[in-house]
Design goal:
The protein has a four-stranded mixed sheet. Helix 9 crosses helix 10. It is 62% helix and 4% strand. The radius of gyration is 22 Å and the shape is globular. The protein contains 15 helices and four strands. By secondary structure, the chain is mainly alpha-helical. A hairpin with a 4-residue loop joins strand 3 and strand 4.
Length: 414
C-alpha cells in the first residue's frame, strides 16, 4: 500500500516516571489572569481562522484528508500495538475508516450528479434540492468525523452511522410518493443545517470562546454532568415521574443535549425534534438521524462540560507514561474529581473519571477496538460505568484532522 509523501506517524514521546503518577489540576492558584489571556487568544484565533475548523467542501480535499489520516494512522498502529493479532485488527479499522469514507463520498456525489443530469419533470426541482441537501449533509458529516473525532476506532463507527442515515435518505428520495418527498425535503434541509452547526462549532476556537463562561460557571458551582443533564431534562418536561436520563427516548436525549449546547452559547441547533412528530419518508430515516446527531451532540456537550477542567492536558501528562506498557487496563469512576488521572505502571492500570475517559477516547489518547460502542453507551447512560473491565486499551497521539484540513485548504487556495 503506497504512502502519501509527507504523511508520517507522530513520534511517541516516552518519559521516565515513578510507578504511580497522578496528575490533577492545582487548587487555590489564582487563574483569572491566565484565563483572560487564554480567552483573548481564542477570540483572536477565531478572528484570523488560525484555530478554527475549515469546512472542506470539495471532493478532492476530503479524499486527501482521508488518505493522509490513513497514512499517518497506519504506521502509528504498527508502532503502538505490540500484539501482532491486535495490530492486524487495528490496521483493518484504519483502512475501514478510509474505505468507508471514500465510498460514502463517491455515492453522495453520484446521487447529486444524477439528479442534476436528470430530465425536467414536475417534481424534478424538489428532488434536485433534496439530493443537493443530502450531499451537503454527508459532506459536513464527513468533515465532522475526520476533523472532530481523532480516535479512528470511534471514527469508523461514526462514519457507519452516517452511512446508514444516507442510505435511508437515498431510499426515500427514490420513492415516488409526492407527500413523502415534501416531508423528506424538509428533513434533508434541517439535517444539512444542523450538521453544519455540530461540525463547525465543536472544536473551533471562536465557538469554544462563546461557551467558555458557561463552562466556568459549571466548574465554580460544582455541577457534575449528571446534574447538568438532569436540569435540562426537567426543564424540557422529561422526568416528572422520576425517569432518569437513560430512561428517555433517543429523541428526548437529543433534545436535552441540544438544550445544553444552545444555552452554553456554543452553537444554534435547529429544532430537529419536531421532525419526529411529522409524517416522514421512513421511520428508519428519523431513527438513523437521531443516532448520528446524538453522537455529534454528545461529543460537543462533553467538550463544553470539561472545557474549564483542562482534562485533555491532564490526560496527556499522565498517559504519556503508559506508552511503554503497551496494552493496559482502564478503571473508570463516575463520581470523584473530573481531572482524576492515575497511571500505575506496575499494575498496567490507568484510572480516570468518566469525563476523562470520554475526552480521552474522542481525542484518541485512550483507544480500544470498541471505542465507538463504549462512547455510545456513555452518551445514552452518562451515570453508569461503561463495561471496560475485560478490555485492554492503548494510548497514542492521534493525528489532528482539523489541523490537517486547514493545511489542505491552504494548499488548495494557492
Amino acid at each position: 500500500m503506497d504512502l502519501e509523501q509527507g504523511a508520517s506517524a507522530p513520534a511517541m514521546e516516552a518519559e521516565e516516571a515513578p510507578l504511580i503518577v497522578e496528575v490533577a489540576a492545582e487548587e487555590g492558584v489564582p487563574k483569572e489572569e491566565e484565563e483572560e489571556k487564554e480567552e483573548e487568544k481564542e477570540k483572536e484565533e477565531g478572528r484570523i481562522g488560525g484555530n478554527n475548523l475549515v469546512m472542506l467542501t470539495e471532493r478532492a480535499q476530503l479524499q486527501r484528508l482521508a488518505l493522509v489520516l490513513r497514512n499517518t494512522e497506519e504506521p502509528l498502529m504498527r508502532q503502538v500495538i505490540k500484539s501482532e493479532q491486535e495490530r492486524v485488527q487495528y490496521l483493518n479499522t484504519v483502512n475501514d475508516a478510509y474505505n468507508q469514507t471514500r465510498r460514502l463520498l463517491d455515492d453522495c456525489t453520484a446521487l447529486r450528479d444524477t439528479h442534476e443530469r436528470s430530465s425536467q419533470s414536475q417534481s424534478h426541482a424538489l428532488r434536485l434540492q433534496v439530493a443537493r441537501d443530502v450531499h451537503d449533509y454527508v459532506i459536513y458529516g464527513l468533515n465532522l468525523c475526520m476533523q472532530n473525532v481523532r480516535n479512528c476506532c470511534m471514527r469508523v463507527d461514526a462514519i457507519a452511522k452516517l452511512r446508514a442515515h444516507y442510505d435511508a435518505l437515498a431510499d426515500g428520495l427514490a420513492e415516488d410518493a409526492a407527500g413523502d418527498l415534501e416531508s423528506l425535503a424538509a428533513e434533508a434541509s434541517q439535517y444539512r443545517a444542523s450538521m453544519w452547526e455540530y461540525c463547525h462549532s465543536h472544536r473551533s476556537a471562536s465557538a469554544r470562546a462563546h461557551s467558555r463562561a458557561y463552562s466556568r460557571v459549571l466548574l465554580l458551582e460544582g455541577i457534575d454532568f449528571a446534574e447538568l443533564t438532569r436540569r435540562h431534562q426537567l426543564r424540557l418536561g422529561y422526568g416528572g415521574k422520576g425517569e432518569d436520563f437513560e430512561d428517555l427516548e433517543d429523541t428526548q436525549k437529543l433534545e436535552v443535549y441540544n438544550s445544553i449546547i444552545v444555552e452554553s452559547g456554543r452553537a444554534k441547533i435547529p429544532l430537529l425534534a419536531g421532525l419526529a412528530g411529522r409524517k416522514i419518508a421512513s421511520a428508519k430515516t428519523w431513527g438513523n438521524a437521531v443516532g448520528v446527531f446524538i453522537m455529534a451532540a454528545g461529543n460537543m456537550v462533553w467538550d463544553v462540560f470539561t472545557a474549564e477542567h483542562n482534562v485533555e492536558a491532564v490526560l496527556r501528562g499522565s498517559l504519556n507514561v503508559m506508552a511503554a506498557v503497551g496494552a493496559f487496563a482502564v478503571d473508570v469512576a463516575v463520581t470523584g474529581a473530573v481531572t482524576k488521572a492515575v497511571a500505575s505502571l506496575g499494575a498496567g492500570l490507568f484510572a480516570t473519571s468518566l469525563a476523562g475517559f470520554v475526552v480521552g477516547a474522542i481525542a484518541g489518547l485512550i483507544f480500544v477496538a470498541v471505542s465507538g460502542r463504549l462512547i455510545d453507551l456513555i452518551f445514552g447512560s452518562p451515570n453508569k460505568v461503561p463495561p471496560v473491565a475485560e478490555l485492554k486499551f492503548h494510548t497514542a497521539v492521534m493525528p489532528d484532522g482539523m489541523s490537517l484540513a486547514i493545511s489542505i485548504a491552504r494548499q488548495s487556495s494557492t
